């Protein structure tokens, strides 16, 4: 029932219904925050990515054409937002490290296996994106968002075989980055 309501609100919002957009954003917030937390181990960072993702939904909802399910479109927005938040935080941390003494905030890589592995995964995705950007979206949609191959193919506009091939190649490349 919730998914049907979400899809209906998304179609209305895409058509310019402001009340539907407001209701949709309120409905989405908890699930968007959970999805952002899959990427970002620090709750405050996940909240920042969540806000950015919801803002992106509000700004670009008219681009949702209904060719795929809204939830698939949303996965992409959330994944991109979380990854962009991570890049911004990483860049900010590097800049601050050059300007000020180190903060007392511990590095999640050394304090939590789960948090550290998420950050290592995000770093590996960045390295993969620099070399093969076409492999990143299929990996994120399959391994993080847990979409099936057909949904990914529909969203990316490529055959299922291409999706499977890109996921296989992307995982192979990511393994190299994660062990290095």
Automatic annotation (TrEMBL):
One Pfam family matching this protein: Sigma70_r4_2
SUPFAM superfamilies: Sigma2 domain of RNA polymerase sigma factors, Sigma3 and sigma4 domains of RNA polymerase sigma factors
Keyword Membrane: no
Annotated InterPro entries: RNA_pol_sigma-70-like, RNA_pol_sigma-70_dom, RNA_pol_sigma70_r2, RNA_pol_sigma70_r4_t2, RNA_pol_sigma_r2, RNA_pol_sigma_r3/r4-like, WH-like_DNA-bd_sf
RNA polymerase sigma factor 70 region 4 type domain residues: 137-174
Domain RNA polymerase sigma-70 region: 28-91
Entry keywords, A to Z: Sigma factor, Transcription, Transcription regulation
Name of protein: Uncharacterized protein
């Amino acid at each position: 029932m919730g998914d049907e309501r979400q899809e209906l609100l998304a179609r209305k919002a895409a058509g310019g219904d402001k009340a539907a957009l407001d209701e949709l954003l309120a409905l989405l917030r908890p699930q968007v925050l959970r999805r952002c937390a899959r990427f970002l181990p620090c709750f405050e960072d996940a909240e920042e990515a969540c806000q950015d993702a919801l803002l992106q939904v509000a700004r670009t909802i008219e681009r949702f054409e209904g060719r795929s399910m809204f939830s698939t479109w949303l996965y992409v927005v959330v994944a991109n937002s979380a990854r962009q938040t991570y890049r911004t935080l990483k860049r900010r941390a590097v800049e601050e490290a050059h300007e000020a003494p180190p903060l007392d905030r511990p590095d999640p890589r050394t304090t939590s296996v789960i948090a550290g592995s998420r950050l290592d995964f995000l770093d590996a995705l960045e390295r993969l994106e620099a070399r093969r950007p076409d492999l990143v979206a299929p990996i994120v949609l399959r391994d993080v968002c847990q979409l099936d191959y057909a949904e990914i193919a529909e969203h990316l506009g490529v055959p299922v075989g291409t999706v499977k091939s890109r996921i296989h190649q992307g995982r192979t490349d990511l393994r190299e980055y994660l062990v290095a």
